[in-house]
Amino acid sequence: MEKKKEELLTLAIESSCDETSAAVLRGGREILANIISTQIPIHQKFGGVVPEIASRKHIVNIMPVIDECLRTAGVELKDIDQVAVTYGPGLVGALLVGVSAAKSLAFSLGKPLIGVNHLEGHIFANFLAAPDLEPPFMALVVSGGHTALVDVQGYNRFRMMGQTRDDAAGEAFDKIARVMGLPYPGGPRIDALAKEGNPLAIDFPQALTEKGNYEFSFSGLKSAVLNYINSEKMKGHELNKADIAASFQRSVIEVLVGKAFQAVKEAGRDTLVLAGGVAANSGLEARLREEAEKQGVRFLYPDKILCTDNAAMIGCRGYYQALDGGYSDLYLNAVPGLSLTDK
Ligand code: KG4
Ligand code: ZN
Predict the structure, then answer these.
(1) Same domain assignment for residues 167 and 194
(2) pTM to 2 decimals?
(3) Model confidence pLDDT, tens digit, residues 174-207
(4) Is ligand 1 within 6 A of the CB of residue 89?
């Protein structure tokens, strides 16, 4: 007898950047295990992710992480009904490790393979966090590699409202932190420092703020902060890092919040969800919540562990994609520049 869809066990694998992760989900939203092995301490001494080292560590970690995941979930490989894996965007060598593992498992088990877009995975983390969430809603995706506003019209229907023309929000956080001598990843450090600083101390620019423009640009802001730091150093002034962090973070947040609520309004949505690693930013979350209350919009964001890279979100996306026939064949390849497009 065929299993009911709520009973389907999905094994999911994520290895797009510096986290090796495997998860087992029952149905679309029940996490049986979500094991994440982070490489952050390894890359920290280089000030950022070193792609070649990341690939090698994924190779070492992938099978132990999958084993631990199955053990934690209390299931065996033969119980798995389908295998979901991130195939892009991300670092090509890193992605290939997960994709190869997933293809081998799907082939040897004779079970379907589902190639998942990492960015869609970040959005779907919200279904895990909020069991009653249903489309349509607006999603603000802010990660180390991407910044985008996506109108989620159905489980398999997305409209891209706008994305960044240059740097992603997380990338800007990481670069500014690096210049200030803070360790990788800089986002959480800036977040913590900003709490001690004055967000109005320095007037950093906010780009593309015209009404109806949903594109983002953070490279001008990044240059403005770097110029400010250099000129302070040249004048022999001691840097007020907390004020710089708070003022920079304010500029990023105001742009994100302004555009997100405009998009919610334009699309006629009543719910806004936050996704991606930068969703862990306490200042962003607080401002979005405040604005949502003012505007009567439901605002959701996942727990920290589901905000940053993890395989559970990939399993959730894979499950809903498969319900619509979104399977892959065994020729699935890594696509480092995969984008999130309208479907
Ligand atoms: O989604 P993610 O884990 O990886 C990508 O898919 O890119 O996001 C990582 C990014 C990094 O740039 C990191 O600095 C940023 O998320 N991040 C934060 C915070 N925590 C993580 N940025 C700002 N504030 C935070 N609390
Ligand atoms: Zn990510």
Answers:
(1) yes
(2) 0.94
(3) 999 999 999 888 999 999 999 999 999 999 999 9
(4) no
Q: Is 187 in the pocket of ligand 1 (CB under 6 A)?
A: yes
Looking at the DSSP assignment, which residues form a beta bridge with residue 162?
149
Residue of 141, 173, 274 to mutate, ligand 1, most atoms within 8 A of C-beta: 173
Specify whether 105 is located in the same domain as 178.
Answer: no
> How far, in Å, are 218, 223, 281, 300 from residue 125 at the CA level?
25, 32, 16, 11
Instruction: Check whether residue 105 and residue 207 sit in a common domain.
Output: no
Can you give the CATH number for the domain in which 174 is found? 3.30.420.40
pLDDT of 134 > 90? The answer is: yes
Q: CB under 8 Å to 328, separation ≥6 — which residues?
A: 87, 113, 114, 115
Burial class (CB in 10 A: 0-12, 13-18, 19+), 72: middle
Together in a domain, 158 and 96: no
How close is the Cα of 46 to the center of ligand 2, in Å? 20
115 lines ligand 1 (CB under 6 A): no
Q: Is the pLDDT of residue 227 over 80?
A: yes
Q: How far is the CA of 187 from the centre of ligand 1 (A)?
A: 6
pLDDT tens sequence across 85-124: 999 999 999 999 999 999 999 999 999 999 999 999 999 9
